[in-house]
Structures are given as structure tokens and as C-alpha cells.
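Hello, quick one for you while I still have it in my head. A protein chain has come my way and I'm curious about its shape. I'm sending you its amino acid sequence along with the C-alpha cells. I'd be grateful if you could look everything over and explain what you see. Here's the protein in full, and shout if anything looks odd to you:
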Amino acid sequence: MSGHNRWTKIKRKKEAQGAAKGKLFTKLIKEITVAARTGGGDPAGNARLRAAIDLAKEANMPADNITRAVKKGTGELEGVAYEEAVYEGYGPGGVAMIVECLTDNRNRTAGDVRSTFAKNGGNLAAEGAVAWNFERRGVVEVRPGPTEDQVMEAAIEAGAEDVVNHGTDGFEVRTHPNDLHGVAEALEKRLKLGGRRLTFVPKETVKLQDHDKARTMLKLMDALEELDDVQSVHANFEMDDKLMEQLA
């Protein structure tokens, strides 16, 4: 199992509870607003917006909040003008990382990201240094229950590209970004689904086996995700379940 995928699931469970939920809502509102601004306010014709709305619904965000965020993006309501910024870097053990941000002040965000890398065992890299090792993909989560063969059959018929078995956490069906919602709609007729989102999937991974490096890596992930301007952090590390359980 990819350690990064497992850690992402743990983080999302934490975000759905307590004070972290407010920060999660803020990130989702930013994403909905920018998605609507760049691709229009109709989810049917805007794959990024639809993915953002799906995540917001999964997080139980009130419908009024979603509607307001869309209207801010389309200009129907006044709102902050966020712009996208993507940073690349390295974590402990040579782990490649991509940090996606939405910000109203690039200088502030760049400084915060650079400082966070430096303080937590990593370093910021030049543009293009690690991006080659990632592909943009759509991801549909399938809840535990069906067999791998059942999920594979449904995924193939739906036009998906790949299926990843996450054991007791269920499955992950991967698609071309433009096919995300078509595949999800086909799958939900046969399977119980979790979230669906656009993400970066690594072509090659780094296995973290050293306890200290693994702990530092997760600390870096945490610190970056705590930054207000950071939307998501992607990394190409893996670690086995036993080590992940020790560190979670």
C-alpha cells in the first residue's frame, strides 16, 4: 500500500472532526471559487468544479456555502481574487513533492512554503524538478465490500485506467482527468463510492523504511498542509502498514 495514500485517508478523517473542519471548509471554498472562475459555474461542464463540490458534500459542507463560493467565482458575489501557485520540492530520503496553493499574495506563500520545507527536513526545488514524475489523474474511492475482480470488472466497463487495492480501506479507481465524473457515474450504479477528486499520481515511488526519515516526512507533510494557502500536498513515498501504524 502506498504510505502517502494511507496518510491522506488519516488526514481526511482528522479534518472531518473538530476544529480542523473549519480549515477544511476554507480550503474547499477556495477551490470551488477558483474552479468556477476558471471554468464556469456549471458543474456539468466543469470537471474541476464538480470534483470540488463532491468533496465539499462529502465533508458535509452546507449547500448555501457551496452556492456562495460558486457565485464568488463567477462574479455574482464579491470575493477575494485567489490565484494558483504550484511548488516542487524534496522531502527526506529524496521523496518528490508537489504543493498546490491558492493565494492572494504569492510572495507570502512562497516564503511560507520555502521556510516550512527548510524547517522540516526538506528543500524547495526549481520548477520542473519533480513534476515529470507525476501525472494528473482522477480518483474515485470505492468503499470496502466488493472483491477486487468485481471492482476491476466495473472499472473496465466504466472506462477507467487502473484499480488500486487498499485492503481494508477499499479501492481506488483511477481515470483520465476528463473522464472522472463519467466513470464515477457508471461505477455508482454498481458499487458504493467514497470521494472523487483530481490528484497527482507518481510514476515512480520511494520506499521509506527508516523510522526517523519516515517520521520527518510525515511531519513535513503535516506542516505544509497546515499552511493557510496550501490546498493539497502530493508525494511519491511509500511505507509499509506496520510503520505507518507506528507513526499515525
Notes: The longest strand covers residues 193-202. The first helix runs from residue 3 to 15.
